[in-house]
Amino acid sequence: MATYLMTNMRLLKTFTAVLLIALAPFTQAETEWLDKVVAIVDDDIILASELDERVQGIQANIARTGKQAPPEEELRKEVLDLLVLENIQMQMAKRYGLRIDDEELNGAVARIAANNNMSISQFQQALVSSGASYLAVREQISREMVLQRVQMGNVNQRIQVTEQEIRNYLQSSEGKEVTSPEFHFSHILIPVSSDATDAESKQAKAKAAAISMKLRAGKNVDNASDNISISDLGWRKGTELPALFKDVAAKMNDGDVSEPLQSASGFHIIKLLESRGVKQLVKQTRASHILLKPSAIRDESQTIALAKQLRQRALKGEDFRELAKEFSEDIGSAQEGGDLGWTTPGQLVPEFQEAMDETAIGEIHKPVASQFGWHVIKVIERRSKDVTDDMRKQIARNALHERKYADELDIWLRKIRSEAFVDIKI
Fold it and tell me: What's the number of domains the chain is made of?
């Protein structure tokens, strides 16, 4: 039971389960009664109505799965413990000044609706039809988001993933499976029966060769006119491919068509439609810039004028590096002659990225504004870098972090529970 409730609380990573709670039937007691305090938690309280509502929601979710709910007394105790933990974290969030703004909340609601194949209006209608309050559901989603951020903020700093752990993981069978390249193939089989004559086998081979050549020439084939069966193998990990395809797949680029591959069942032709994780290349740019910031001493128009002047001086032959050292107000790059080193798309602010991308090597872009000020940008060189190993390491780092997160979260939750003042009244 405790495991079920902890899982319920960890719905923080996905919001879909919020819908289940929201749609759970809730019936108020026919007899009105005064609410009472069931627990005091530091500077806050938990009311009986909160406990009853959560218990009923969880009971409905358990019933929906077809499982047997535990005795109510045991369930209420477990749920109260859960509410105490949530209350402690919500008080921490309040002290941090943590809140979810409307834009973030609207985005979360939209994702929940999409995960349940609904538009936002359909989602709202589903709630209304079930007797649930849309505003109450938004409040629950906001609460889950706050809890997630409190936990991540406190638990992530307790987790360290070392380079040795990453290397060990990548060498493990699990690591090889997780980071294995993925391939999307279409497949054609020219069948050969087990009792086929040599002539029939040669005929099938010749047909397979002709189809392979036709595809490699960029021509189309179809089931009817070519009397073949084309199937889509979907996305498959390299480790999941048939042995016949593995070695060939590793040497293919997207769009490539194989020579006929023979097996006991006949001749196979595969076309690599697309791949992931085989070789990841990113375009990088090395640029320099001069940053000028408007100030009380130099207003916006004067700053623009100076930026234009410095660009003209560089275009007439003055050393861009020396100009950057003298005039640039970017303390991080000025002493390096404005050199920003190699950057990848998305690393720089959009305005800078766009201007840099449209500038040829060796040329200087006209002054462009960003949130930091006015930039004069010179593109030094470009390259394509293979980041496959970096990508595999990041996948490994994420997997190890995820594994440690669950353990550290449990430890942290026990810690904050033990440090809090909690007075249970029932």
Answer: 3
DSSP for 326-371 reads: HH---TTTGGGTTEEEEE-TTSS-HHHHHHHHTSPTT-BPPPEEET
Single-letter code of the amino acid located at 217: A
Closest by CA to 39, choosing from 79, 97, 75, 93, is 79
Residue 351 has which token pair? Answer: 């305005």
Is pTM, for the whole model, over 0.70?
Answer: no
CA distance to 154, 159, 262, 316, per residue, from 6 (Å): 18, 20, 53, 68
C-alpha dist (Å) from residue 202 to 68, 91, 198, 223, 307: 64, 77, 6, 21, 74
pLDDT tens track for 229-263: 888 888 988 878 888 888 888 788 889 999 999 99
304/232 same-domain check: no
Q: Are the beta carbons of 193 and 239 closer than 8 angstroms? A: no
DSSP state of 240: G
Length of the chain: 426
**Is residue 409 in some structural domain?**
no
